[in-house]
Amino acid sequence: MTINSVLGPINPDDLGFTLIHEHLSVGMPGWELDPDDCNRSDEISGAVDKMAEIMDLGVKSFVDPCPMELGRDPEFAAEVASRSGMQIVIATGLYNDALGIPMHFRLMDVDAIGEIYERELTEGIGETGIKAGIIKVATGGIPGFTEIGAGVTDAETKCLRAAAKAHKATGAPILCHNSEVEPYGREVLNVFDEEGVDFNKVLIGHACGVGDMRYYFDILDRGAWLGFDRFGIEAIASDKLRVASLCGLLAVGYDRIMLSHDALHCMRGRPGSGFSAMAEQSPNWNYAHICRNIIPQMRDAGVAQDKIDTLTVANPRNYFLRS
Ligand SMILES: [Zn+2]
What we know:
The protein has a single domain, classed as TIM Barrel (Alpha-Beta Barrel), CATH 3.20.20.140. Helix content is 40%, strand content 14%. It has 11 helices and 12 strands. Helix 7 links the parallel strand 9 and strand 10. The radius of gyration is 18 Å and the shape is globular. The mean pLDDT is 96. The chain binds zinc ion. Zinc ion (ZN) binds next to loops.
């Protein structure tokens, strides 16, 4: 089975070192109503430079799971891929109740949403002809902005079931955003279990800031993958916590984990103060941080190169392969 990159199919064996969760450009719902926006062509050139920087460090593939309603821009990604040579994969799928799922989709049933996801995976996104290669789902509130402790909401559950349908029709893997303060990885797997989803195709993301071994064991023992995919976001959790959790899991034999930063090159519209504050508190929040700083720290902690290759090369490949 091949993977849909923004420039066409690629073989899972050719993925190489993969950052499993990054973003080129994101716009919070409503950004298009803001008269102040970045210069899109300048931002594309800047992103091409950043791709060159991490390709020099050995990165070969870049998964951008921006949900449909958060300013996803397939043509931005395709131009960056063709000018830089980076293999870029983008997503279909909606975000969480707190920020996303526009009313148009709330009025649809599971089958209709799943059919749209499937079409984006098999025919392409809108009129672009660019196909999604992965399915995004999201749960959990946002501290300071939305209610915490609401559980997985009805609208989110509907999107989880729609993602399961599109996954079963296409074999595409599912990538899950979870909140660090109320991580619902177990509940998400319960829904996918009811839908008969293969857990080898499910990545429970944003786990690295949770710091709870019981949560990690529960997810990994059920056969799903863990995303340690927010390295550098010190505003949410320290990298020390992330590295300690990662090395602890590796020490007792768990290695179904993938690495990334959830970094962002361009925020559409004017950046809100919340985003700027988070970036200020997180000086290493960029696409190169794992290669430059985290992998050396893992080596210092005794992690062998073949284990680092497992996390960065073999695991993404095996996640994308149809099992
Ligand atoms: Zn993200």
